[in-house]
Design brief:
single chain; mainly alpha; two-stranded antiparallel sheet
Length: 240
């Protein structure tokens, strides 16, 4: 379950907000024709470290399963040790949790575990905003999806590589599966503007489907909404 902690802090925030550290964003009107970049990325350079192999905090012998401590059914959190076990020990993965409560817990977990979370490089975020900022802002108008969330998803999913293809067949900036792309009206999956529009439309649908819960919406984006429904929460997949 590695993808969600990296981007959950950016979801479902006010139009102007601070998103951990010195990362800020402000929702603005759609830019006119010929306009330049409109997203400004501000991150503390000292925090700009890309950690590929974050450590984990092991449980002590005899410690109770996290499901029991959270009052959840067994099996929601995998037995296999994970680099992100510590995160799911404090952030409930189950459906039925108040979205605001879960989101605040996710933010707190991210802040206190910042040294264990892989984060995109400042240069990557700035490059994505320079190249695709107008398309990101345009696609998010009239949706529940913030531009900062889209920027974070692109950075985590593809690192801004337009031609990126995953081992599962997801393609483009926002790593859309072909079936998902077709479902949301994307005819050219590697076209950056279409890919962003399709990804934003899917995220907006997921936020509505899961009661504006950004954690469940991101889990659905990564693993499919069917997996979230089947597992009654964030699926116990290492890559989610």
């Amino acid at each position: 379950m590695a993808a969600i902690p990296s981007v959950s802090r950016a979801a479902d925030l006010p139009d102007t907000a601070q998103v951990g550290g010195d990362f800020t964003f402000k929702r603005v009107r759609a830019p006119g024709s010929g306009a330049g970049k409109r997203i400004t990325v501000q991150i503390d350079p000292d925090a700009d470290i890309y950690r590929l192999t974050p450590g984990s905090i092991p449980r002590r012998p005899g410690d109770p399963r996290p499901e029991a401590a959270l009052g959840l059914p067994p099996g929601l959190i995998p037995d296999t040790p994970s680099d992100y076990d510590w995160y799911w020990d404090v952030v409930s993965p189950a459906v039925g949790i108040d979205p605001g409560t879960r989101f605040n817990a996710a933010l707190a977990a991210v802040r206190h575990g910042a040294d264990k979370i892989g984060t995109p490089r400042l240069q990557t975020l700035q490059r994505i905003s320079d190249e695709h900022g107008v398309d990101i802002l345009t696609a998010t108008i009239g949706t529940d999806v913030s531009p900062a969330l889209v920027l974070a998803v692109i950075a985590v999913e593809s690192a801004g590589r337009v031609e990126a293809v995953s081992h599962a067949g997801a393609q483009g900036l926002m790593q859309l599966m072909p079936a998902t792309a077709a479902r949301f009206g994307v005819s050219e999956i590697t076209n950056p503007r279409q890919n962003i529009r399709g990804g934003v439309t899917y995220l907006d649908w997921l936020l509505k489907e899961f009661g504006k819960d950004p954690v469940l919406a991101l889990a659905g984006y990564n693993a499919g909404e069917g997996a979230v429904t089947k597992h009654q929460g964030v699926p116990p997949y290492a890559e989610t």
